[in-house]
Design a protein that fits this description.
This protein is an alpha/beta fold. The protein has a domain at 26-31 and 43-141: Rossmann fold (3-Layer(aba) Sandwich). It has five helices and seven strands. It has helices at 8-18, 36-43, 56-69, 81-87, 107-114, and strands at residues 26-29, 48-53, 74-78, 92-97, 117-127, 137-145, 148-155. The protein has a seven-stranded mixed sheet, covered by helices on one side. Helix 2 links the parallel strand 1 (26-29) and strand 2. Helix 4 (81-87) packs parallel to helix 5. The chain is globular, with a radius of gyration of 14 Å. The N and C termini lie far apart (35 Å).
Length: 156
Amino acid sequence: MQIRPTPDRVRETLFNWLGQRLDSLSCLDLFAGSGALGLEAASRGAVAVTLVENHPRVAVALRDSIRLLGANQVRVVHADALEFLVQDRATYDVVFIDPPYADGPPNALMEHLSRRLAAGARVYVEGDRRFEPPPGWRILRQDRAGMAHFQLLQVG
């Protein structure tokens, strides 16, 4: 298991794109890892943050960290990202997708995700190469920092 947190410079750019405050927004971090993106969203006013993590030890560590931080608006779900989306019924305003670099987000994940998005929702994707979104998605912003390629997407 390898956790590769989003670099600080990339995270700063992302939150500049999203806006400094995420008040009253609901956020989803599908490959939580360190939880940095979801916790940053919570610190910027997100009303609800769901961290989805497939690795059991990492999920436990995230729960412990959240409890220590007193971040009551953050919940951790131990699940596979695609299985979570198939079963989930909530809608989200901001979604973070930072899967293991070798994998990239599959089109099936993007299809199920599009059903969980609130009107105007934005989706952040990070990987080791530029992601080509499936039909129906558009790229709002994109950049690269070292090995990290990152984009902000929206349905429509």
